[in-house]
Specification:
Elements: E1 9-13, H1 19-32, E2 37-42, H2 50-55, E3 61-66, H3 79-97, E4 103-107, H4 109-114, H5 120-128, E5 135-139, H6 145-150, E6 153-156
Parallel strand pairs: 1-5, 1-6, 2-3, 2-4, 4-5
Bound molecules: adenosine-5'-triphosphate and magnesium ion.
Length: about 180
């Protein structure tokens, strides 16, 4: 089991590519030190994600998805989208407070808040009740300022160029 000196709250936000993959990179590094890592992927529900397949080969790395494979309608999310996001928050809370994990990643939680699937207050509460040794990473565009204020680290990925604008569609191994 790994040891944690001071559990940090990290936020990866911004409009460029690299937030979820940065969190996965941090997970890989932590697992190398024997940490146990739990990732909840909000608003994602596809078995095609490479990280899901890779995590099975890595001891101590659990990834769960708490979304549908379809896009959420902004402003009018479906009942199932809301139910799954709530379930994701329940799992996240268990993982953060349960003492089983050194690192807990809430992937796309910022987007889930922005889309009205999860109340911001609940996310802030979760961060505040984090035991001192637990690390938490929150990813997604539009990180709310109140969350940034609670965090120890906030990194913004800025899009300078993206291949999408040249018409290159999402590819296995790159986007998922
Ligand atoms: P990654 O998962 O590759 O690290 P990310 O988490 O930073 O990316 P998200 O905002 O979660 O990015 O978007 C998910 C996917 O959408 C990314 O893999 C990315 O390639 C793609 N994407 C990011 N920015 C754009 C954009 N401006 N237009 C179209 N697609 C984009
Ligand atoms: Mg992402």
């Amino acid at each position: 089991m790994g040891s944690v000196k001071k559990g940090l709250v990290q936020v990866y936000t911004g409009n460029g590519k690299g937030k979820t993959t940065a969190a996965l990179g941090q997970a890989l590094r932590a697992i190398g030190h024997g940490w146990r890592v739990y990732m909840v992927q909000f608003m994602k529900g596809s078995r095609e994600y490479g990280e899901l397949m890779a995590a099975r080969h890595l001891p101590g790395f659990t990834i769960v998805q708490s979304g549908l494979p379809t896009f959420v309608r902004k402003g009018s999310p479906g009942e199932e989208d809301v139910r799954l996001a709530r379930e994701g928050m329940r799992l996240a809370r268990e993982a953060i407070t349960g003492g089983q994990y050194e690192l807990v990643i809430l992937d796309e939680i910022n987007v889930a808040v922005d889309y009205g699937l999860v109340p911001l207050e609940e996310v802030l509460e979760l961060v505040r009740l984090k035991p001192p040794h637990v690390n938490v990473i929150l990813t997604g565009r539009y990180a709310p300022p109140a969350l940034a204020a609670e965090a120890d680290l906030v990194s913004e990925v800025l899009e300078i160029k993206h291949h999408y604008h040249q018409g290159v569609q999402a590819q296995a191994g790159i986007e998922y």
